[in-house]
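User: Hey, quick favor. My workstation is busy. Could you predict this chain's structure for me?
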Amino acid sequence: MDLYFREFGEGQPLIILHGLLGSSDNWLTIGRKLSHSRKVFIIDQRNHGKSFHSDIFDYSALSQDIDHFIHSRQLVKPVLMGHSMGGKTVMNYAITHPEALDRLIVVDISPKQYDNQHVHILDGLSSIDLTNLTLRNEADAQLEKFVPEAGIRQFLLKNLTRDDQGQFKWRLNLKTVREKIDNVGQALPEGAFSTVKALFIYGGNSDYIQSRDLITIPEIFPQAQFAKIEDAGHWVHSEKMEEFLEVVENFLEE
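Assistant: No problem, here it is.
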């Protein structure tokens, strides 16, 4: 099945993948800024945004979705960029289809196993009573019991929309994501290896990439480069957008 996507610019293709519970909406500004010299595709991954819902939700399927997208549009040597879960998706694609892409940009995620850090968020989203919900502010108030940070709640509630009858519903396939959440933290397969040129961008205040990862990542991606952006957390691309764009542009122009 086809993925929902947005498209900007002309030139070498650059495909951008969002993270868990996100969507292409989160990357519109960056996508437009990067499209001055290349063709940018911002994709909603399965079970997210406006893309299709499926009971299958793991990196094998997410990687196959990207392969289908690339071949169905006859894209030649695209650059793949992914944040968090999207970063895991593009890493998985790079180890199985190294010949298909030009280079790789991974944003604030490592190939390693991660413990499930999202249970409370998924519990909070699941606790919202959509049937009796009349205003978005009511959802925010219900979610605050689980997620005290207003900025994170605002990000999460972008998944809330209305159907043709005006009833609130989730764009996100919340049921499947909650059931399969352990798959999101999985490490790359044992023996994973790719000689694709790769850039790993990470926030100085984030704990997703730690000092020991700078040693282990090149064992899988021997052409890995690293860019640390100070005073930025996990959402490094939105917290320090100009610095992020400069790092990306420099890597793409090498």
